TrEMBL record, chains A, B:
CDD domains: MoeA. Pathway: Cofactor biosynthesis; molybdopterin biosynthesis. It catalyses: adenylyl-molybdopterin + molybdate = Mo-molybdopterin + AMP + H(+). Belongs to the MoeA family. Transmembrane segments: none annotated. Its cofactor is Mg(2+). This is Molybdopterin molybdenumtransferase. Keywords: Magnesium, Metal-binding, Molybdenum, Molybdenum cofactor biosynthesis, Transferase. InterPro entries: MoaB/Mog-like_dom_sf (IPR036425), MoaB/Mog_dom (IPR001453), MoeA-like (IPR038987), MoeA_C_domain_IV (IPR005111), MoeA_C_domain_IV_sf (IPR036688), MoeA_linker/N (IPR005110), MoeA_linker/N_sf (IPR036135).
Amino acid sequence: MQRTSRMLTPQEALDIILAHVQRLPSEEVGLMDAAGRVLAEPLYAPEDHPPFPAATMDGYAVIHDDTSPWREVIGEQFAGHVTDVTVTPGTAVRITTGAPLPAGADAVVPVEDVELVDDHIVIRREEVRPGENVRPVGADVHRGELIVPAGTVLGPAEIGLAASLGIASVPVSRRPRVSVLSTGDELVDPGQPLGPGQIRDSNRFMLVAALQQAGAEVVWAGRGPDDVERLTELLRERIAESDVVISSGGVSVGERDLISAALRTLGTVHIERLFMKPGKPFHFVTVGRTLLFGLPGNPVSALVGFEIFVMAALRAMTGQQPVIPEPVTVVLAHPIEPGDRIEYQRAIVWCDETGTLFARNTGPQSSARLLSAVGANAYLIVPPRAEPYRPGERLRAILRRPVHGQAR
Amino acid sequence: MQRTSRMLTPQEALDIILAHVQRLPSEEVGLMDAAGRVLAEPLYAPEDHPPFPAATMDGYAVIHDDTSPWREVIGEQFAGHVTDVTVTPGTAVRITTGAPLPAGADAVVPVEDVELVDDHIVIRREEVRPGENVRPVGADVHRGELIVPAGTVLGPAEIGLAASLGIASVPVSRRPRVSVLSTGDELVDPGQPLGPGQIRDSNRFMLVAALQQAGAEVVWAGRGPDDVERLTELLRERIAESDVVISSGGVSVGERDLISAALRTLGTVHIERLFMKPGKPFHFVTVGRTLLFGLPGNPVSALVGFEIFVMAALRAMTGQQPVIPEPVTVVLAHPIEPGDRIEYQRAIVWCDETGTLFARNTGPQSSARLLSAVGANAYLIVPPRAEPYRPGERLRAILRRPVHGQAR
């Protein structure tokens, strides 16, 4: 097999991949099923919030410029219990936080500014301002206002806001349907005994976990057969049922290149190799609307390939914004040895007491050592250069988990 | 109802809550179901990785100090295809990346340093180092080594690593069983018409989404009845089936305090009010091992109460580390007006090109305005003080979503 194609930079590869992504159709889901889904269309407020002028304090609803020395309490207004009462000069209505302002009233005087004598109140201050302690109609949200932009991953705040405006279901992008297959004659499932020269199939489990966390629907996960014709047949079935097919293994020069051969037969090969480490062998192929990613067999390479490239495709498919989150800048806490390709070192990024992000890598960065990704919350992007990067120099990093402060 | 208790700071409240948390039992789950679960016991490597000395390059397996001028190629070794061949002086075996080193050999010479003539190779360099291009047994992970600490939320790297070491299932903490109820006579479900003085029930949907994203099992979600006896009865049932019961509404002074009354009857009240905004009215009650959280009815107050206090309890129950992630330090991008209690302002935190975290709030911070939490990736902690915080001053922030860099 010939490998004459130029090695692409990660950015060039992302551009090629995103140029081939097509948006998935949208579907309507109820709010109880909307968490973690990507909003397909912008949400606008169908009604005002609050829907009525509401008290923001416990107190008495009054007319602000009523000059009466004392006022008769003619009723009570609780949240959810509206009474048919109108405040006129010389009267007031007891009201609790959140309850609708009764007709006629234009202000709420807090309990603590009032003296209650029998069924009358005396206001113990000079002036009551119009609208005081009243949330007017639409104070929080105006009818027609954009409340959640398309591309937002829906969380509790967005879902609560939709509910508060009477929206019972929302349009979200369909979850991407993904098939995962691992290849390699040497693979044995965990739980089975290892024969001579055999290793565990770890990528299938790793990629399924990554897809679950990314909100994709794993429609199939299995081992690829050991024969190019049967493998091609399996892939054909998977392509028909999937938006994305991910394989691992079979793309290195030294490996039996069943996957490369099968992919070549099936579709258009756009990418074969990347100018990055780990993850140099990397296939990106399209067959109609289906995207195929041939990840390397080395688990760290497969993980990085998934998190940088497949994730970008999944985000673009569902319309998630931003498609490619902007990397952060970090200060190196120790020297970093560059390689001859762009390295994505597994790293820990934290925030110091001045608000500056610092990074250290997770030790030996062998692309077979998955332990280097355990506990890592970032990929440190290390461009090639002659001399080592010194502590205090700045590099960019892609955050894969939250950043914390330093314990005090 | 009397409110004589002192208002607690958020830190005091967290200390009280965590002192009442009991760890949930653990259960064994297969790797395909382990994503997002909390590891209950540390994982140690049951075997070495790699399990055999493996080639890291495509090339020829040789004896490093063999002085033969050329060597006969006596076999091939591919990953997963082990041949019964022994390298002796004057011989070599063709080998591919990841394949086991054949008996007798102690180094791999890469293809590009070798000239192949018929069935013999000539090494085109002076010296071959022992162990060159060979990953020895246990190079990545030693048998018995700690590979994933207890309390880790399992992601793709941890699951892949477990699989690579033959671990088929892992002990994880049982998911917390949680019941959610909203209370308030004024509440109407989204999708139903609003009557006079009525508002939507948004907290139930918001809290269910938050629980789903936190990995809890929502065993029940509904509306509380409007009568203290029936409410107490419902709560009793929910307590029996739940590790955590969360209510919203009915804890403010002005509201009909059904929840307060019911909680008081059922268990021990530890917290009633907090010195914070939003979220001052906040009940924490225990009944046996079950934790009850009485959140305010205002949606922003309920969300903040959930994310700061309930989340800490859920993390502690499952043994997740850290129980309370350390806040980050941020630089203010604009003036911030403090209040008379500790404020948790909804904010956007980003990283500038020097690696410094900056923050701005999301506009009006009314605790009824859930829009202030949409798109917010942080809570900015604003302690009370007389004068406003100036741009450039530093405060602490709790990150609730990832931080991004600035687009260039």
